[in-house]
Amino acid sequence: MKVLAFVSLIILDFAVGIPLHMFYPYGPTNGDARLPAVDDGSSSEIYINTAFNFFGNSHRSLFVNTNGDVTFLSPLITYSPAAFPYQQNTKIIAPYWGDVDTRNGGDIWFRETHDSGLLQRSSTEIQSVFPEQTEFNATWIFIITWSNVAFYGADRHGKHRRCTFQCVLVTNGIHSFVMFNYYKMQWTTGDASGGDSSTGLGGIPAQVGFDAGDGEHYYAVQGSRTSDIINVPQKSNIGIAGKFIFRVDMVTVEQATLINECDNQICQNEGTCEDLDGLSRWRCNCLPGFTGIHCETDINECASSPCQHSGKCLDLLNAYRCHCRNGFTGNSCQIDINECGSNPCMHGATCRDKANHYLCDCQSGYIGDICQIDIDECQSNPCYNNASCIDKTPGWDCACLPGYTGIRCQTEIDECQSNPCENNGTCVDLVDGYECLCTNESSGLHCEKWMNHCSSSTCLHDGMCINQYGGFICKCLESWYGERCEFREINRTQICTDLEYTECSCFTHQLKPKPKSNKLLIGSIGSIIGLFMTLIFYTTWMLLNTPNNKSNRVDPEKTKLFPDNQTMKNEKISELIDKNKSPVGSDMRQKKHHNCFTDHSGFDFSKLYVNKDGSKRIIKCRHQRDA
């Protein structure tokens, strides 16, 4: 009896099937074997260590064929897919029976595995779509993957069309299941089966299903050997596009039960259940404010700490409310209230906004929360030396007493610094003043006055007193000299005496009075010594020339002061100055103009002498005048 079972297909909107990461792991990194790159090839017989039941028959070996199928008992190299049932004793599992040619590209991988993780995965998937298999635990898996394979006869354009699909055999030694996984299917037919070499479409498209090999029992997926089979990645019998699961250990193929996963699910808090594509896939769509698999959890909107600046969060249904600290506002207390907005700080202070308060940075001279207090800077008595403190804003000033200076009047002014005392006076610094200690030669506030020595010391004989530092000098009239003009230049030469004049005035040309000095003293001493030596010489001479008897007494006429020739000279001079003959004596006007004597009565004789040193001396003589 023929049994033709058709799977109810669910056409999905997806352009591709399941992603590759939902495939069972394959490839060389997972220990897979690889079929050689041939056309219409097959593996050798592969012995398996767990019996696989297929349509009621147990098998211990299988063949992996190039053209998209797995067979028992014998390989299958037929490239054009035939309708089921196929020929006797050909037991076929056909995930995509078509004319595959791996010489144009692609690989075929296969392996037997007992990996515990994969066994658990497959068991869960089977249990989810076969409710009666809740106790099923897989013990063996065989995975065959056609990865990116091309079709036979593809030209340069057709070589870019590829197919990737997978067949997974699962059993526990009793119950057997087969999974088909599809990623991208871009061709259906090889060139030898009437397909287009550029598109891989047309001709006799691929076959998908199972054949018991008894000519009676088989199963074909809807769309097999038609152009619609290219859409198999968009179809499923379990609600996941590109994935199929079948039970194959009985005489008929049993398809998975497509159940409404939401039938037994209760979504709480008015959540709605949504049945999803896939195995045991459903979802509760929760109302705002709830979460969890069954919408059983009220979302704590405060969990994310939405309230800023230490605001307290109140959880509401799908909302929250922030109780802000003083100084903050906004839905999340995100706004810092500007407490400086009202300009609370006084006297030019700078306001600094803080959380729920403000700080005033006061200008110098002010204190207080809002800088309202004017500081009395004089309170600390900053001024020295009894100075007066003047409070200012900011700061203070010191009004110094006379004699002090400095910011704090700490420095005593040195009034002597300007050297106010004159004439070697000594300055004594006082507070707000000074005193000059003058020498004996000066007086006055600044010792600016010299002592007037002329007030107590006068010059004699009409001499002129000239005051000087340390003393005075007298400027004497003609013929007077000495410190006070106390001496008169009379009889300073023997000439006038020799000429028998009683008075003589002797002076040099343009003679000026000079102060008494050591030279004068030395000269006087020298004159005395010279006079003394002359007397000794004269006495000695007289003794040597005096006769011892009275007969030798000298005639007074013969004992004159000068020798005869001198006597003669004097007589001659005497003749020259005879009053009647002397031009000086006869000219009274000359006497008036040569009043060298103090009584201004003139002179009787005058003569000019030139000394060896070039100086000139005038000798003026006269007879003494009656008083």
Features:
disordered N terminus; mainly beta; Laminin; seven-stranded mixed β-sheet; seven-stranded antiparallel β-sheet; rod-shaped; 6 helices; 627 residues
**Overall pLDDT confidence:** 82
Q: Tell me the distance between the termini.
A: 209 Å
Class by helix and strand content? mainly beta
CA-based gyration radius: 79 Å
Q: Ranges with pLDDT <50 over ≥5 residues?
A: 1-15, 508-517, 547-595
Q: Report helical residue fraction.
A: 10-25%
Shape: rod-shaped
Total number of strands: 41
**What's the total helix number?**
6
The percent range for strand residues is: 25-35%
Strand order of the largest sheet: 1-12-11-6-5-4-3
Biggest sheet overview: 7 strands, mixed
Q: Can you give a write-up of this model?
A:
With 627 residues, this protein is mostly beta strands. It has five domains: 3-255, no CATH class; 339-374, Laminin (Ribbon), CATH 2.10.25.10; 377-412, Laminin (Ribbon), CATH 2.10.25.10; 415-450, Ribbon (Laminin), CATH 2.10.25; 489-524 and 565-627, no CATH class. It is 11% helix and 30% strand. It contains six helices and 41 strands. The strands form 15 sheets. The protein has a seven-stranded mixed β-sheet with strand order 1-12-11-6-5-4-3, with no helix packed on it. The chain has a seven-stranded antiparallel β-sheet with strand order 2-7-8-9-10-13-14, with helices on one face. Strands 39-41-40 form a three-stranded antiparallel β-sheet. A hairpin with a 2-residue loop joins β3 and β4. The termini are far apart. Mean pLDDT is 82; it is low at 1-15, 508-517 and 547-595.
